[in-house]
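Sequence, please.
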């Protein structure tokens, strides 16, 4: 791992993920528990980088994958996953 991603083994219900808003049991984000190794980037939770890439692309396109919310606030853009970002000059 790069040091910028975290992977949680499953099933390990005694482990929890702590965040600013509180704590959730490891691997229980969303409706169904994710089996195996999971990873997160921004607000996306998936089993592979390819799934993160797909979620990121959907968010960037603002397609119907995540639904629509009426709001006067601007959309919060997600940064591309670090493995997709241009490292810039070296």
């Amino acid at each position: 791992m790069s040091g910028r991603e975290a992977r949680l083994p499953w099933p390990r219900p005694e482990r929890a993920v702590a965040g600013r808003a509180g704590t959730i049991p490891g691997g229980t984000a969303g409706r169904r528990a994710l089996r195996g190794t999971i990873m997160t980037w921004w607000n996306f939770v998936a089993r592979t980088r390819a799934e993160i890439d797909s979620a990121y692309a959907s968010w960037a396109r603002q397609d119907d994958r995540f639904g629509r919310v009426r709001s006067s606030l601007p959309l919060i853009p997600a940064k591309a996953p670090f493995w997709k970002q241009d490292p810039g000059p070296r």
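The first strand starts at residue 16 and ends at 19.
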